[in-house]
Write a structure and sequence with these properties.
By secondary structure, the protein is α/β, with parallel strands linked by helices. It contains 8 helices and 9 strands. Helix 2 (about 95-105) links the parallel strand 4 and strand 5 (about 110-115). The protein binds iron/sulfur cluster (SF4).
Length: about 250
């Protein structure tokens, strides 16, 4: 049985809907980390590379916080911490606060990978318990051509986290024409350039793993390598030094 509040948040405190738990990953934040992919996402991007995580969770996917902690305890000698990805992790604030509080007593760091459109008021307490965020910036004004949302609060949320020094990485997946790529690069770069430890990961969209129904509408919008170099140069010109380009 799912317990939703009226704004879509899930009021679970003793269990988390887990799509998959990867004992070791080194692409979800610095160092070797355990990655937990939660089930359920609130914005449904056309280019989602984990489309199986979008649907609401089923009862069989719920794992108790105790059982997750017991599993992580086995990996503890080999990891710096955990990253909760998805799906959208911030939909489960109470469960994550409980999980992160316990993990901090085990000296493990706790990261969240977010789509950036969370309700800030509903998320503030979770942010206090989170060490770092990996933060997607999908668009400034064209998100409804990429995702099932009209929300535009992502940059406000990014500003809030940057002020708290809680951002490790900003990520953008690039498409041509159906997203405002140059505007995104400008908005992100102006914000993160003063934070030299924040990395900007610029990812060229690819079609592997994308839901087959969306591939025809995305096919003609994949940027060239030259386009990606241009986006990188634009960010560098605005003072960003820590850039990873993924073709
Ligand atoms: S926010 Fe992430 S998990 Fe959710 S639909 Fe978009 S790409 Fe997929």
């Amino acid at each position: 049985m799912q317990t939703y509040s009226t704004d879509g948040y899930v009021m679970l405190s003793d269990a988390l809907p887990v799509h998959k738990l990867l004992p070791f990953a080194n692409v979800d934040g610095i160092g070797n980390r355990t990655s937990i992919f939660v089930q359920g996402c609130d914005i449904r991007c056309r280019y989602c590379h984990n489309p199986e995580t979008i649907m609401p969770y089923t009862h069989s996917q719920l794992r108790s916080i105790t059982s997750i902690l017991e599993e992580i305890e086995q990996y503890r000698p080999y990891i710096r911490g955990i990253t909760v990805s998805g799906g959208e992790a911030t939909l489960y604030p109470q469960a994550l606060i409980r999980l992160f509080s316990a993990l901090h007593t085990m000296n493990l760091t706790c990261y969240i990978d977010t789509n950036g459109f969370f309700n800030l008021e509903r998320t503030k307490e979770l942010i206090e318990h989170t060490d770092k965020f990996l933060f997607d910036v999908k668009s400034l004004n064209m998100q409804n051509s990429l995702c099932a949302t009209d929300r535009k609060n992502n940059m406000e949320n990014l500003d809030y986290l940057l002020k708290l020094n809680k951002v490790e990485e900003v990520r953008t997946v690039f498409l041509k024409d159906i997203m405002d790529a140059e505007s995104v690069v400008a908005a992100v770069s102006q914000r993160i350039a003063p934070h030299t430890d924040v990395q900007y990961k610029m990812i060229r969209c690819h079609l592997r793993g994308i839901s087959s129904e969306y591939i025809p509408s995305l096919k003609g919008h994949i940027p060239s390598k030259a386009d990606m170099q241009n986006y990188k140069q634009q960010a560098e010109a605005l003072g960003v030094k820590n850039i990873i380009l993924i073709y």
